[in-house]
Amino acid sequence: MEQSILVVDDEKAIINLLKQAFSRAGYDVRSAESAENALDILEKENIHVMFFDLNLPQMNGLELCKVVKKNMPMSVIYAITGYASLFELAECREAGFEDYFKKPVKISNLVKAAENAFEKINRWNSKELKNK
Amino acid sequence: MTDNTADKILDEPKIFTKEGLLEVIDALPLAIAVIDSNRAVALANKSTYLFTNKDQLQLIGHVGGEAFGCIHHDDVPEGCGFGPECLKCKLRTTVLTTMEQKEPQHMVETVMIFKNHGERHLRISTLPMMLSGDEVVLLAIEDITEVKKYEQTAMEKEKLSAVIQTAGAVCHEMNQPLMVIMGFAELLLEDLPENGVQKENAKEIKKQVERLGSITRKLMAIARYKTKGYLSAEIIDIDAASDLNLNESD
User: H/E/C letters for each residue in B83-123?
Assistant: First the structure.
């Protein structure tokens, strides 16, 4: 099964970068420049690993994360932000983000995070199968 | 004939007896002293004794700087009024101006250093008057050190808030392109052959962007208002102002 990642950022250059980086690491990458666009993609596609920018137009990354986690509690979502404070960090955890990266972040760290996310999801899936 | 009694009262120095004046000034919360024509303390209220932490023997009859405990009284053998620092002393010049011009002086602010309680910020007012037949100056001293400290703290809080807001905006805008440059430098490094000049150049780009990233992280962690001299200007000292101390900036 192809491992898909959804990247949400309103900066085209960042989307371009993350698309290239995750594709090289062997992942299938979908992208959206707004939260609304991201929700449309998630309705149609089965994606469980995501990277959201926090500062999105209209619905922000925190709100988007809350909506996604409500519908897909097993999804693993990471926040990437250009400006962070401790208050935001607490809010991110509360919204359901798995972890939190401050820009500029090393690509290798993001790829590592994606690997961990898929590893976790696979573990959860195998447990579910055993329970059934 | 015009009766100008009221004008005369305003023009002429106020006339008091020592006892009468002491009764009035003892009831006031400011340090108030009477300075005679020899610049010595002729009378002082209770607040002055509290302010100087001295008794009547140590205060009355002693020249201003000695009585109040100014550190510069000991600068020269002649004492208060004769040292080089005395030329700059606003307390001394305010009293002398009042005496010479027979005009009151209002709310003159100055900083003095005392032997007993260090540097104090003072607000002084004076009034020329007649006391038991002598021309004297009534000197009121208000210690506004705490007020000044509070004003300074409030001003620094305001400045800090402006610095944090500006730093936040700058960091947010800068971190986007930094992320893009750093990310593509990383991808470029993967593509370039080992031991080539281009690989070294790409490494340098990545290193410098990481350095910029550490500066924006320090900017985002600014928690206090600290400046440092830079040529003839003052700039924010990012290392001292930030809660992060990465020591990477030159």
Answer: CHHHHHCHHHHHHHHHHHHCCCEEEEEEEEEECCCEEEEEE
The Cα of B185 is separated from the nearest Cα of chain A by a number of Å equal to: 10
* CATH for A4-131 (3.40.50.720, 3.90.230.10, 3.30.70.100, 3.40.50.2300): 3.40.50.2300
- Which tokens sit at A2? 């192809």
Contact criterion met (CB < 8 Å) for B186 and A107: yes
> How high is the ipTM of this complex?
0.85
Q: What is the pLDDT of residues A45-61, one digit of tens each?
A: 999 999 999 989 889 99
Measured between CB atoms, does A102 come within 8 Å of chain B?
A: yes
pTM of the model: 0.63
| pLDDT, tens digit, 9 for 90 and up, residues B23-52 | 999 999 999 999 999 999 999 999 999 999
